[in-house]
Amino acid sequence: MPALHCSEQDGEKWHIQDPASQRLTWNKPPVNVLVIRKIRDDSLLEPFKELCQFLVEEKKLMVFVEKKVADDVTLTNDEAFSSICKKLCTFREGFDDISHCIDLIICLGGDGTLLYASSLFQGSVPPVMAFHLGSLGFLTPFKFESYRTEVAKVFEGNAAIILRSRLKVKVVKDVPERSEQDGGPDENGLEPHGHGSSEAGKVTLLQVLNEVVVDRGPSSYLSNVDLYLDGRLITSVQGDGVIVSTPTGSTAYAAAAGASMIHPNVPAIMVTPICPHSLSFRPIVVPAGVELMIMLSPDARNTAWVSFDGRKRQEIKHGDSIKITTSCYPVPSICCHDLVYDWFDSLAQCLHWNVRKKQTRLSEASDSSDTEN
């Protein structure tokens, strides 16, 4: 890899990190494993049972699953699986905090399972191993048929890893004075479900893996929001809305809106307008670490709506603000092969990137003056 040199006086060298050097290493063997299963999909019951049995009986691990998954009638009525089911540790989203006791996450399903797993950890995220058992597998590189071999490699630390950056989002609602019946914040200044209060109003803090989407909602009017970069007004977005995405999210909604696709190892934030009322408004890429702020324009005719990785959709009114920057808590995603091959393979398999019929080879007997369309 190329190296950046300092001045000759200090005699030091600064090296650009080789992405291939990002390897998974364990300080101590993993003990607690979180298994995320796509719900409402009966085809995943057998893989789920097989994996849990393998982890509990053969690997002697503590396996955590959602309570609604463990309470599935099909599982509870399965006598052969009952002994394993009793050993599973259960939790409820929004009630039980398991963020400090999980060593490894294993996802069974599509890309939504990894997005959901990310949302469970608003701070540091354990390594994630995702098996492709859903309708879209851009973020799930592993095939379940070889799960025993692949899991064994991961436990040995023999795997490449990619750090998928997330967005740290702060939503400030311009709420009138709180009534006494609203209830106060806890000792940390936070309200239930990640909300807090300040002099400006109600504050929501979120970690987002794919994108923040601001749109016009049910209104027939164009959305009209102002976009600030590090406190300076950059432009106003008039159209159906705007997408602020990570490199991971650049292949999701942003790609459908005409954005470029960015490799997850590139430190950047992408801003993509949705159907802008301007022919010259192209998607832009800004450096990771800058702070973007989105607010309704003073002359906006209607409110806007915002969602985070497709969840927690809420209305944005005049005086509200959405502040977005790069999070210091990425998602360590385990690669099946390596971080370059996996990404381009996903482009080809899921998005059919650059798939076309190739021109046939010219035969030696062809007239050299002939041209081929």
From TrEMBL:
GO terms for molecular function: NAD+ kinase activity. Keywords: Kinase, NAD, NADP, Transferase. It comes from the Eukaryota. SUPFAM superfamilies: NAD kinase/diacylglycerol kinase-like. One of its GO terms (biological process) is NAD+ metabolic process. Gene3D superfamilies: Probable inorganic polyphosphate/atp-NAD kinase, domain 1 (3.40.50.10330), Probable inorganic polyphosphate/atp-NAD kinase, domain 2 (2.60.200.30). The keyword DNA-binding does not apply. Its EC number is 2.7.1.23. Belongs to the NAD kinase family. This is NAD(+) kinase. The gene is nadkb.
